């Protein structure tokens, strides 16, 4: 367990926003740390949202977290648990981002998803996510960012679900799974 390694890697990129999955909260395996607080403090990201998804044997839980340099005006969780499978969700954070050159601040909605391992499960989860109308009530020009761990090894979910909903998706999926392949793509960072 080396949280300083995680914060060093993230800190290298000086992000304004970080979306994390499987973040421990009070689990024995991670020294009972509240990792969203630990990472947020180490990265000097004072605004944080966390929602637990899975109880950990021995106490504590893990779930999704959003760390931000910008205030999080509101946060909510969307349950994406397929019946009989591991609990999964999407954490929706409404961030207040200052405008450039004196322009008014605006709200940016950030959705941090953690999808299942099986293809049928991911399809069901994204169908449910879009059926929940997560963008209903947002002004038409409200910026929306959707990210997280899609467990989409073959990179098919973007074209199937997100392009039809008006999102821009990468032409080539980032090679991040299994974990060792991301080392091969580290010299080609995604911005």
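-> sequence recovered:
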């Amino acid at each position: 367990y080396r949280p300083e390694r995680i914060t060093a890697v993230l800190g290298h990129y000086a992000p304004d926003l970080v979306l994390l999955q499987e973040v421990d909260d009070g689990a024995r395996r991670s020294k009972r740390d509240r990792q969203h607080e630990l990472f947020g403090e180490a990265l000097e990201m004072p605004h944080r949202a966390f929602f637990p998804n899975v109880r950990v044997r021995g106490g504590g839980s893990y779930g999704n977290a959003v760390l931000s340099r910008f205030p999080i005006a509101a946060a909510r969780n969307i349950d994406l648990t397929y019946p009989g499978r591991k609990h999964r969700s999407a954490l929706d954070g409404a961030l207040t981002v200052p405008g450039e050159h004196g322009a008014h601040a605006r709200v940016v909605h950030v959705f941090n998803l953690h999808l299942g391992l099986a293809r049928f499960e991911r399809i069901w989860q994204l169908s449910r996510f879009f059926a929940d109308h997560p963008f209903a009530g947002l002004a038409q020009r409200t910026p929306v960012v959707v990210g997280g761990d899609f467990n989409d090894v073959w990179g098919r979910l973007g074209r199937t679900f997100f392009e039809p909903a008006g999102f821009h998706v990468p032409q080539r999926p980032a090679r991040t799974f299994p974990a060792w392949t991301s080392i091969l793509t580290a010299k080609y960072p995604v911005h």
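The CA atoms of residues 99 and 105 lie 5 Å apart.
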